Amino acid sequence: MGYDVDGKRVLVTGASAGIGSAVARGMAERGAIVGICARRADRLAEVLDDCQRYSPQSRSWVVDLADLDRVSSFALEADDALGGIDVLVNNAGIPKRRKVQALTVEEIDAVMGLNYLSPVRLILALLPRMLARAAEGREPAHIVNISSVAARLSPPGEAAYAASKAALTAFSECLAAELWDQPVDVHLINPGVIDTELFELPGNDPLLATDIEPLPPALVADLLVEQLDRGAFELYVPEWFRDLFAVKAGDIEGFIAGAAEYQRQREAEAGAEAGIGATPET
Ligand SMILES: NC(=O)c1ccc[n+]([C@@H]2O[C@H](COP(=O)([O-])OP(=O)(O)OC[C@H]3O[C@@H](n4cnc5c(N)ncnc54)[C@H](OP(=O)(O)O)[C@@H]3O)[C@@H](O)[C@H]2O)c1
């Protein structure tokens, strides 16, 4: 395939921190003109400074993508300002690590809003323009949706989050098939455990899978560039999660039983570490 990001116009949502900031920096270093957005102006300014060192035309927007009525107009504004988006990276997202019986309707709506409805609105707003530009001879555009291994593996304790990412994954697969013969490519990334602030945000239970080594966000950024270059639809970071998904597909009941057992073990270990069940000192 081969894809050169040099000179491309790349919009990265949720780029004030974590994976998004690494992707923005990585794209700018490779010569892309980068548009970044998030809510925190100060953090966004730091990332923009780094991007502009390599790519002076890069720019930023302070925007709350959970405000769904604002998303489409923001998309068109960014598209105009960047001169037509070649690569849309739908990265902004929030976690929700909480068991179903402790979830509120508002929490479920909030996760679904930012993780699924917002990227979908960005896609609906930008896709017609991407197709129109390609019809006029511009290189095909790319839509990269940052989903999660949670979408494929449905980890216990993350139902609201996993469902929001599974929705994004299903949407991406349908869209990729619909656009198969058209000049817009769709890609999906399933990060596993990446070392970001996502695990420190309030309103979440501790991560169950503390036995998995977190990987650096810059690795996701590098692999995304490789994925574009290979023209691959789906990327797992790390790759071994793909094998786990194959196991699940082959034996769903066994997989759910295994997930329940994993949860029991992890909770028992966490309880033991916290001294729960130990004889109180007198
Ligand atoms: N870290 C992981 O292990 C992991 C695993 C699987 C999938 N993912 C996915 O990867 C993506 C990036 O996550 P991360 O780990 O890099 O998390 P992070 O460090 O918490 O970064 C999240 C980014 O999203 C932005 N954001 C949050 N709410 C927003 C809103 N309402 N409007 C606009 N921007 C908003 C944040 O900026 P502001 O707070 O400034 O708005 C921040 O820039 C997410 O979609 C996440 O679900 C991460």
Structural notes for this entry:
The protein has 282 residues and is of the alpha/beta class. It has one domain (9-248): Rossmann fold. It has 9 helices and 7 strands. The longest helix has 31 residues, at 105-135. The radius of gyration is 20 Å and the shape is globular. The structure holds NADP nicotinamide-adenine-dinucleotide phosphate (NAP). NADP nicotinamide-adenine-dinucleotide phosphate (NAP) is lined by residues 14-20, 38-40, 43, 64-66, 91-94, 114, 146, 148, 191, 193-194, 196-198.
- The CATH architecture assignment turns out to be 3-Layer(aba) Sandwich
Low-confidence stretches: 277-282
The secondary-structure class comes to alpha/beta
- Tell me the Rg in angstroms: 20 Å
| Number of structurally distinct domains | 1
Shape by Cα distribution: globular
Mean pLDDT score, rounded?
96
Measured as a percent range, the helix fraction is 40-55%
Largest sheet: spatial strand order = 3-2-1-4-5-6-7
Helices, by number, come to: 9
Please name the CATH topology: Rossmann fold
| Ligand types | NADP nicotinamide-adenine-dinucleotide phosphate
Strand portion, in percent? Answer: 5-15%
Beta strand count: 7
Order of helices and strands: EHEHEHEHEHHEHEHH
Which terms summarize this structure?
9 helices, Rossmann fold, 282 residues, 7-stranded parallel beta sheet, alpha/beta, disordered C terminus, 51% helix, binds NADP nicotinamide-adenine-dinucleotide phosphate
